[in-house]
Amino acid sequence: MKKVGIFGGTFNPPHNGHLLMANEVLQSLQLAEIWFMPNQIPPHKQHRDIISAEHRFNMLQLAVNGNDAFRVESIELERSGPSFTYDTICLLKERHPDIQFYFIIGADMIEYLPKWYKIDLLQNLVQFVGVKRPNYKTTTQYNVLEVDVPQFDVSSSFIRRRLNEGKNIRYLLPDSVIQYIKEHGLYES
Fold first, then answer.
1. How far are the Cα atoms of 39, 40, 45, 57, 61 from residue 80, in angstroms, in the given order?
2. Which CATH code of 3.40.50.620, 3.90.1150.10, 3.30.450.20, 3.20.20.60 fits the domain covering 2-184?
């Protein structure tokens, strides 16, 4: 059975920390691929700072370009309303019954797992993979495989703040994503 990692998020914008995390999980668990899955409306986040799904999808395509093991999965963008992981995984398993899915989450989401929609059913459909982040605990009652990833303490909100302040973001994102942000005037104050 093919083993595929699912890496969901807003990717607002996608950055080198996302790519590093995905690559480490891919190698550590010997997965065939990582599918980056931008969500439409995350149930746990404020929606006001999120740019269009089209821009986030395009930036992700640019970010993963050149890595044959990475691809962008648009399944959550095909639906309206909040993106609940349970619903998405049910659809993915229906479309790809021959794939074993590993759902990648950061330590911030490990702490949040008890609040996830239908978490008790979801944990039977996927293997959760948790990666450590500074200032978060990884202990949980749920079955989460931990993967050590070199710490790259950057977040999309940090990048948006830097862009808003006119500060340099070089080496935080792939150059192609930086170019896209500039060409489309994204995250400007």
1. 10, 7, 16, 15, 21
2. 3.40.50.620
Q: Are 71 and 37 in contact (CB under 8 A)?
A: no
Record the tokens describing residue 66, joined without a space.
């050149």
* Strands annotated E in 33-186: 33-38, 70-72, 99-106, 127-131, 144-147
Domain ranges of the chain: 2-184
Instruction: Tell me if the pTM is above 0.90.
Output: yes
At 117-173, the pLDDT tens digits run 999 999 999 999 999 776 777 788 899 999 988 888 888 999 999 999 999 999 999
Tokens of 24: 């480490």
d(CA 166, CA 53): 24
Residue range 61-110, pLDDT digits in tens: 999 999 999 999 999 998 877 778 999 999 999 999 999 999 999 887 88
Cis peptide before 13 (omega within 30 of 0): yes
Bridge-based pairing of strands 33-38 and 2-9 is parallel
Distance CA(4)–CA(25), nearest Å, equals 10
Q: How many CA atoms lie within 13 A of 177 on its CB side?
A: 30
**Token pair of 151 as six digits:** 């710490």
Chain position carrying tokens 């400007």: 188
